[in-house]
């Protein structure tokens, strides 16, 4: 198969969908890879790195879309890319259709095959192509939180790990899923005293077993949250209710019972945030202050560490990309239900219920669609 990797053109997006190692792996399976010039520069990979791995460099984005049967990307196509997409072309990337009606209609009109990273789902309901970014954001939340706890950045002026004779900072992690677990591990590793709250007792049992002694677990409820935020220096918002807006576990009035200089990092801000006063911010201007409490609410945290994020993402996407290249999208999806659940829009038809529901569109069940398509 002929595979094309365009350079990401969305503002501030430095990730790339294939690393030189990924190119070498795909080449081993007998496929051809075209990279757009400078596609990997933002992640630290040069065109020479790609050519020595076996890719051919094309000068323009137009040439990549024109040549490739499968396009592998990171972010959803933006308006200037819509007309480059060809009928029957396979696009494997993040789409987040339910948050853009314009993109949904554009992809229906282009009649491409849109396989979305974010809905590829394993039998245990985990989302293997979202997990790596949650891992990055979870670990990063402590790094950022520690930074903003410094006095010149309006924090409490407390060192996470303390020093001999001075107690460490207290970190509260709301939600003990992927983000929360990675955050707790990082904070504990730096010597902080960590509390993880979750509504799942099974999850708390698991975390209690695997975490080091400076991490304790607590049931998440309003009473416990009110008690804990009074003494916490850094609070990480990491809750997720699949398919719904995040619940506001910390409300506006609760800021008053926190100590001045407390830092809130609401990682869940991309789902509306679990702290009422959080509004999405950017890496250029990541924080704002309300009632002397520092709010960090960057909606695309992994974007600040494109090298790590690219490697983490491609480690997870590459095995699926190889299946798609080896078998073609139809056979690959028929033989692997993880990939099947990634199909969102196929040749003008919406085959993912969440997307159809979001925009009031007609919907064809994906199994029925494939059956019809193979006849
Ligand atoms: N800002 C960013 O750059 C960025 C990057 C990656 C992920 N995220 C977001 O981070 C959030 C967490 O993602 P995840 O992968 O860890 O999800 P996850 O599903 O692995 O974990 C969510 C956890 O929240 C718990 N939870 C639900 N309701 C709760 C409540 N009321 N109190 C306490 N815990 C509760 C669940 O039991 C679960 O353990 C998501 O909104 C995700 O989109 C943001």
Describe the 3D structure.
With 375 residues, the chain is α/β, with parallel strands linked by helices. The protein has two domains: 2-119 and 307-374, Rossmann fold; 131-304, Rossmann fold, CATH 3.40.50.720. Helices cover 36% and strands 16% of the residues. It has helices spanning 20-28, 47-53, 61-67, 79-82, 101-110, 131-148, 178-189, 201-210, 222-229, 306-327, 329-335, 337-340, 353-359, 366-374, and strands spanning 2-5, 32-36, 56-58, 70-72, 90-93, 113-116, 170-174, 193-198, 215-219, 234-237, 263-266, 287-290, 293-296, 343-346, 349-350. The strands form two sheets. Strands 3-2-1-4-5-6-14-15 form an eight-stranded mixed β-sheet, with helices on both faces. A seven-stranded mixed β-sheet has the order 9-8-7-10-11-13-12, with helices on both faces. β8 (193-198), α8 and β9 form a beta-alpha-beta unit. The structure holds nicotinamide-adenine-dinucleotide (NAD). Substrate binds at residues 15, 75.
Short overview:
With 375 residues, the protein is α/β, with parallel strands linked by helices. Helices cover 36% and strands 16% of the residues. It is built from 14 helices and 15 strands.
In total, the number of strands is: 15
Beginning-to-end CA distance, first to last residue: 23 Å
CATH architecture of the largest domain: 3-Layer(aba) Sandwich
Helix content: 25-40%
Mean pLDDT equals 96
- In CATH terms, the superfamily of the largest domain is NAD(P)-binding Rossmann-like Domain
Spatial order of the strands forming the largest sheet: 3-2-1-4-5-6-14-15
Name of the CATH first level of the largest domain: Alpha Beta
GO molecular function: alanine dehydrogenase activity; nucleotide binding
EC number: 1.4.1.1
Enzyme class: oxidoreductase
Keywords: NAD, Nucleotide-binding, Oxidoreductase
